[in-house]
Amino acid sequence: MSAFHPFRTLAKRAILPIEMAGAPASPFYAPSRWEGVVIGLVALVAYFTFAHILGEGRGTIVGAFVCSLALAVRISWPLRRQVWFWLTIGVLAALHIVAVTLFNWSFAGQWQGPILIPFGIADTLIMLVIIYVVFRSVYGVPDRLVTTPEPRYAQDGD
C-alpha cells in the first residue's frame, strides 16, 4: 500500500484542469549575479513607486517583499511549468499583500540595509521551504536539490 499524496491525487482526478508536467530533476536553480542585480533593480523600482504612493515605511516593506518573492521565483525556476508552483506563489504573494495592508509599517522607513537584509533573507528562505515541502509532497525526494545553469555560450577552443 502506498502513501497518500494529496497533490498527486488532485492532479490524477482532474480537479485541476491543466495537465501537470513531469517532475524536474531538481526543484531549485542557482541564479547568476546579473539575475540578482535585475531582481534588485526591480525591487528598487517597487520601493520608489510604493514609497511615493503608500509612504516610506510601506514602500520599504513592499521593496523587500518584491525582492524576496522574485528571488524565490527565480531560484525555483525549474518548477515554472507546474500548476501547483504558481498556485503556491499566488498564495505567498497574497499573504505578503495582506501583511503590507494590515500592519503599520511606519517604523520601517528608518530601516537601512543591515537591518532589512536579514528579514528579506529569512522571508526568501521561508518561501523556498514552503515550495520544497509542496514539491516533496507531490514528487518525493529530488535527485538533486540545486542545479547549476548551463553555460550560455560555447567555450572558444583555439
Percentage of residues in strands: under 5%
The helix fraction, in percent, is 55-70%
Question: How many separate domains?
Answer: 1
Gyration radius, in Å? 18 Å
Oligomer: single chain
- End-to-end Cα distance, whole Å, is 58 Å
Bulk shape: globular
Largest sheet: 2 strands, parallel
| Low-pLDDT ranges | 13-19
Largest sheet, spatial ordering of strands: 1-2
Order of SSEs, N→C? HEHHHHE
Q: Class by helix and strand content?
A: mainly alpha
Can you count the beta strands? 2
Mean of residue pLDDT values: 81
Task: Please work out how many helical segments DSSP would assign.
Answer: 5
What does this structure look like?
With about 160 residues, this protein is mostly helical. The chain has five helices and two strands. It has helices at about 5-10, 35-55, 55-75, 85-100, 115-140, and strands spanning about 30, 145. It has a two-stranded parallel ribbon with strand order 1-2. The longest helix has 27 residues, at about 115-140. The radius of gyration is 18 Å and the shape is globular.
Q: Which features does this protein show?
A:
158 residues, mainly alpha, two-stranded parallel sheet, 5 helices, 2 strands, 3% strand, globular
Q: What is the gist of this entry?
A:
Helices cover 61% and strands 3% of the residues. The protein has helices at 6-12, 33-54, 56-75, 83-102, 113-139, and strands at 28-29, 146-147. The longest helix is centred in the C-terminal third of the chain and has 27 residues, at 113-139.
